[in-house]
Write a structure and sequence with these properties.
This protein has 8 helices and 9 strands. It is α/β, with parallel strands linked by helices and 243 residues long. The chain has a 7-stranded mixed beta sheet, sandwiched between helices. Strands 1-2 form a two-stranded antiparallel ribbon. Helix 4 (54-65) packs parallel to helix 5 (84-91).
Length: 243
Amino acid sequence: RGPVEQRGGMWLAGEVRERVAAVHSGGDLPERLRLYDGWAERYEQDVAALEYRAPHLAAASLAFAFPGPPAGARVLDVACGTGLVARELHRRGFCCLHGVDGSAGMLKRARSTGLYRQLQRCTLGPDPLPAPAEHYDAVTVVGALGEGQVPCTVLTELLRVTKPGGLLCLTTRSNPSNLRYKEELEAAMVGLERCGVWRKVLAQEVENWERATSPQESPQGTGYISGVVYIYQKCLIPPLQKD
């Protein structure tokens, strides 16, 4: 076993911190996907040790905001990983789940859950989503909108595949190393709202999002980092095109 560090009365294994830090540390895309492939077998153990709450919080927020019965809603889980978000959505009555991820290892684990009707490999950013326009009642991106991961520029592609009136559920972290990305993401969100393509339904700040992987990431000394769940609704009427 590697070294351990105490956080809020619990012991967090050093190797967990190292794996999390590795996938968030940037590097080129092939290297990041290789790290995710290698992490797939231990991913759920590690995020449980981190007390990672984003899948639960995102699914609960989407279920609260969703305007109709969930059973018939078609939902796209972007960067689906091993299927943690799908489990939470399924508990809340969302049954028609599609997923995409750039990691073959993660997709293999997601497929084993039996919760997805469709799974495809897609690296969002370089690749367009493998779906026609206005296809989904809801789109989720949980955990992947962050520094060194999915770029902020993907918002328009997420909107493309969302039905008018459909919801987009997005999350990001508020720890120091992700603040620049969070600012860029929120600026892009505000810009799209001003253009009239979507409207904000909620932005919920959560203090104990997950355990910090270093003291620098939790400057308040709590041992946790904070995060945000955003829900946006795609506008029913597209904005007028300027000449």
